Amino acid sequence: MNMHIALTFDDNFWAPAFATMRSVCLFTPQREELVFHLCHRTLTPEHRADLEAIRDEFPVTLRWYDLDQSKMFRDIAARMPENRRLSNIVYARLMIDRLVDKDVERVLYLDCDMLVRDDVAWLFTLDLNGNSIAAVRDTIGAQITNGRDVSRNRDIFDPGDYYFNAGMIVIDVARWRDADVLGRMEEAYASGIMQRIYYDQDLLNLIFRRNWLKLPWRWNLIDPKPPHESLDPAIIHYTGDNKPWGILSTKVPTVAFPRLYRHTMKNELFHRFARHRWKCWWLKKLRLAR
């Protein structure tokens, strides 16, 4: 049975995408069953070659989707509210059912700021109990949706409803397709709801409200700190301001498993990614100074 895993990223996140993909390979023994669906944009040939190198080490399958060539994605990205921190690549996961082959029944979506430490095969044998998706409850869901005093957007969200983090989603593709995610997004945009909510994560919580299976926290540990290492998380999600690729100058770990992450990305790529980030930072500063 093939295990289909989808990642979405642009050229500024190619190295973390590689680290997430390689971590899956390292901790999942059935590597020949892994099929990675790489939904990308602005990817340079050099960085694509870095990602393709995963096949030199593991017998995995890679399927590529250039979103810059997708009229559907360009239309969505041009009209929907843009997250300046995450970029409009976040909307790509809404198209998963339109991208994968018709015979794909289940997809594991992973954000590219994740490190996998357990066999993901369990997620592909999981009984969804009739739900469309499975995910982990977000610990700050009420704050995300309702803000200060938990009073904003109360006409849209009920704090009493569980709210999931969309960085890791187990997707029943047929049920996702039946939910008409892109159609519901268009409705939300026309009604003004998209302009008020937290991008695609809030939208998915609206679409799948009370129609998702709540997974144990260890399958998406949000904003992991060093003490969390003793809890043996399965998937680590670096959602905080501190990232495992931004700690070259400090001797005190600020996130969980920084050394494992660095060696999973591989040292050479880790340092090359650091130089890439510095270059982007200086170019931004120079543009602002003009």
- Count of helical regions: 12
Taking all Cα atoms into account, the compactness measure Rg is: 19 Å
Read across the widest sheet, the strand sequence of neighbours is 3-2-1-4-7-6-8
Q: How many structural domains does the protein architecture include? A: 1
Approximate strand percentage = 15-25%
Distance between the termini: 55 Å
Q: Could you tell me the CATH topology label.
A: Spore Coat Polysaccharide Biosynthesis Protein SpsA, Chain A
Q: Roughly what percent helix?
A: 25-40%
The CATH architecture comes to: Alpha-Beta Complex
| CATH fourth-tier homologous superfamily | Spore Coat Polysaccharide Biosynthesis Protein SpsA, Chain A
Largest sheet: 7 strands, mixed
Poorly predicted ranges (pLDDT <50, ≥5 residues)? none
Shape from CA axes?
globular
- The SS-based structural class is alpha/beta
Mean pLDDT across all residues, rounded?
91
Series of secondary-structure elements, N-terminal to C-terminal: EHEHHEHHEEHEHEHHHEEEHH
Number of E strands: 10
Query: For the record, what CATH class applies?
Result: Alpha Beta
Based on the model shown, name its key terms:
single chain; Spore Coat Polysaccharide Biosynthesis Protein SpsA, Chain A; 18% strand; alpha/beta; three-stranded mixed β-sheet; 290 residues
